[in-house]
Amino acid sequence: MIITLEAVYSFLGIITLLGSVYTFLDRKNIRRFTSGLFYLLYGTTLLLGKILPPALIGIFVMIMVVIAGFGGLKLGHYGENSSEQRESSRLRLKNRLFIPALLIPILTVIGSEGLIGVKWFGLYLFDPKNVTLISLGVAALIALVVGLMITKNSPITSIKESRRLLEAIGWAAVLPQMLATLGTLFDRAGVGKIVSHLVVEVIPAHSLFWAVFAYCVGMALFTMVMGNAFAAFPVMTAGIAIPLLIGHFGIEANRIAAIGMFAGYCGTLLTPMAANFNIVPAALLDLKDKNHVIKIQMPTAILLLAVNVMLMYFVAR
Q: 290 lies in a domain?
């Protein structure tokens, strides 16, 4: 294959590492050394994660946790344009500003649907296992080049803006990877068996409704803890779905998986652990209440969770 997912991660790593250099050099940031180290380590894991020993990556992660936990991350000085300059640029560029943003989803769809199995000189153009993610990365790179051509800015501007956005997100940028790892650890540690034992002890063995209720609500709660429905899925499925819903009540596995994941997404709407959905938007929009997004989503999440419980129950009957 010519372009792999590691190439996309390497590109992200290079951007992050270059941004960390500006953080180290930012004398107006009172935590420039600890902040710079945090993003330096993060960029290194993205760039060299395939090469470095897992134990060393673990040490990097522990250092990053210590830095974030003890207040080592602070926003820097970014030399942003004034509101008058931004307004002047907006009037000059007009609707052309939307072209790079629209290119990303359009090119991603084209790549993910049209480049599956495409070969060049006998090699797959994109890794067949990760066509969509690679298409997204390539689309973002193309959109970046187009954006620079439209605005006539230098590539350095993209690095500085990447640094500004990444520092606005802060420690939450690392959370999805860490939570996915946590889900794997929970599964290998046998948490699913413990959950299964507890559920069997509490709910009546003959009650389909309470088994469905335990699975759907459990998916939502574990997602709230882990911040990721994909991390919660193997734990709850091994603990409740397979032994009870599939093994005992004979429900079709595909239906359980689809509705169970939907129930997990209800938990995503309710937790700050799902940082990329609930904390990052609040940070980027400079909301005073960092939990405002969660508060707005709460009624919808609870209603949808109830719908999922009833849907799985009636589908299973």
A: yes
Report the alpha-carbon distance of residue 307 to residue 133 in Å, rounded: 31
Q: Are 208 and 136 in a shared domain?
A: no
Residue 25 lies in a domain: no
Last residue of a domain, one of 106, 128, 153: 153
> Would you say residue 62 lies in a domain?
no
Q: Number of structural domains, the chain?
A: 2
Residue ranges in 189-252 assigned as alpha helix (H): 191-202, 208-226, 229-236
227 plus 137 within the same structural domain: no
Determine the pLDDT at residue 317. 67
What 3 state SS string does 111-162 have?
A: HHHHCCCCEECCEECECHHHHHHHHHHHHHHHHHHHHHHHHCCCHHHHHHHH
Distances (CA, A) of 190 to 7, 98, 126: 34, 48, 36
CB under 8 A, 24+ apart: contacts of 64-67: 64/38, 64/171, 64/174, 67/34, 67/35, 67/37, 67/38
**Do 196 and 149 fall within a single domain?**
no
Last residue of a domain, one of 99, 127, 153: 153
Half-sphere exposure of 131 (CA within 13 A, CB side): 15
**pLDDT (tens digit per residue) in 2-46:** 778 888 899 999 999 999 999 999 888 888 899 999 999 999 999
Of 64, 55, 142, 71, the residue nearest 103 (C-alpha): 142
Contact in structure between 189 and 238 (CB atoms under 8 Å): no
Calculate helix-pair angle for 32-48, 54-69, nearest 10 degrees: 150
Burial of 195 (0-12, 13-18, 19+ CB in 10 A): buried
What region does 304 belong to: left with phi over 0, alpha with psi -120 to 50, or beta?
alpha
Does 308 share its domain with 198? Answer: yes
The model's pTM is 0.74
- Domain extent at residue 211: 190-316
Tell me, what's the pLDDT at 91? 77
**Residue 44 included in any domain:** no
